[in-house]
Design a protein that fits this description.
Layout (H helix, E strand, L loop, with lengths): L1 H10 L14 H16 L7 E2 L12 E2 H11 L11 H19 L3 H40 L9 H51 L4 H69 L4 H58 L3 H10 L14 H4 L1
Antiparallel strand pairs: 1-2
Helix pairs in contact: 1-2, 5-7, 6-7, 6-8, 7-8, 7-9, 8-9
């Protein structure tokens, strides 16, 4: 650029008119200023810029030409002298670049509005859910406190309530039996382990005491037989404990969970019934009629829910009673026969009891994998 300016300045002719005065055009003034700047401070290509509106314009619309020059040089290497654009062309380039940049970064209005509407819809839906939950909780709490202090009425099914209370009492007693059976299993397991250790001690002493070999020998055999019978009895008692645990903590607990849902539905039903009765006794204006219609609809919905859960509880209580009788009949017979055969010393009867109830005992090394599985 410096060479171009110098060559242009050397060949430039200044026109002289008839009056002897030389008149400078604006382009010549700008060229002379550029030459003076180059001669004083030297060329500074990195700060060269294109000014919109001529050399004497404002600072608005200034675009650095270093980025434009670099992109042009990288894509099309120069093969000849570079030609600088005119001020009007530079102004058009600057305005087109600014318009393109503004259009590039402007978001689409439709997509923004769609996102805002979706977010607003989700927020409104969540607010409605929280509002309904708050109203329902307030009404149920008010009804519960009224019942506790004897000021409100509650719906009672005497027959169903008696069956529910009987189930809860039965569950507490069965839990007590389950705890005692587990304690018996734990203590009897310790007894079997002690007998096993005692049999090993008698066998060792029978080999090291020739004068008492016979006495130690038959005592060792007796303890080994007791250990074997004790392990068989442990299998029967463990089966008994497992069956009682399933009955108490799964079958009965499932029925009681349905009972809890039924009691919650009963409380909601009474709460909305009380609300409907209070609105029915009030004045009949336009606002009260609308509220009365809404209360009537809520009351009917909770009434249907309450009646459905009441029927479910009645059915589950019936099936639970039948299942309980069947399971306990089998388990009590097993427990009686196994205990009687063990303490009577009837090994054959004890083994027959386990076969009768399809109980399989695990061998001492059953849980340990074979040497082929370990490879």
């Amino acid at each position: 650029m410096t060479d171009r300016l110098m060559s242009k300045a050397a060949t430039m002719e200044i026109p002289i008119h008839g009056n002897g005065d030389s008149r400078r055009l604006p382009e010549d003034d700008g060229l002379e200023q550029d030459l003076q700047q180059v001669m004083v401070s030297g060329p500074n290509l990195n700060e060269t810029s294109i000014v919109s509106g001529g050399y004497g314009g404002t600072a608005e619309g200034i675009i650095p030409t270093s980025s434009i020059k670099d992109s042009l040089l990288s894509s099309h290497p120069p093969h000849g002298p570079l030609i600088s654009p005119s001020p009007s062309a530079a102004s058009r380039i600057a305005s087109q670049a600014a318009a393109a940049g503004s259009n590039l970064h402007q978001p689409h209005p439709n997509s923004a509005m769609t996102g805002e509407e979706a977010a607003r819809g989700v927020a409104v839906e969540k607010f409605d859910i929280v509002k309904k939950w708050g109203i329902n909780t307030y009404k149920c709490t008010k009804q519960l406190l009224s019942e506790r202090f004897g000021r409100g009425s509650r719906t009672v099914d005497l027959e169903l309530e008696a069956q529910i209370e009987l189930l809860r009492d039965t569950k507490r007693k069965y839990e007590c039996v389950l705890g005692l059976a587990r304690a018996l299993t734990s203590h009897f397991y310790s007894l079997v382990q002690t007998q096993h250790a005692l049999a090993d001690a008698f066998s060792d002493l029978s080999q090291k005491s020739p004068e008492l070999q016979e006495e130690f020998g038959y005592n060792a055999e007796t303890q080994k037989l007791l250990c074997k019978n004790g392990e068989t009895l442990l299998g029967a008692v463990n089966f008994f404990v497992s069956s009682i645990n399933t009955l108490v903590n799964k079958t009965m607990e499932d029925t009681l969970m349905t009972v809890k849902h039924y009691e919650t539905a009963r409380l909601e039903y009474d709460a909305y019934r009380t609300d409907l009765e209070e609105l029915s006794l009030g004045p009949r204006d336009a606002g009260t009629l609308c509220r009365l219609d809404a209360a009537q609809a809520n009351f009917q919905a909770h009434r249907v829910k309450y009646e459905k859960l009441r029927a479910d509880v009645a059915v589950k209580l019936k099936f639970l009673e039948e299942n309980k009788v069947k399971v306990m009949h089998k388990q009590l017979l097993l427990f009686h026969n196994a205990i009687s055969a063990y303490f009577a010393g009837n090994q054959q009867q004890l083994e027959q009891t386990l076969k009768q109830f399809s109980i399989k005992l695990k061998s001492p090394g059953a849980d340990k994998p074979s040497w082929l599985e370990e490879q």
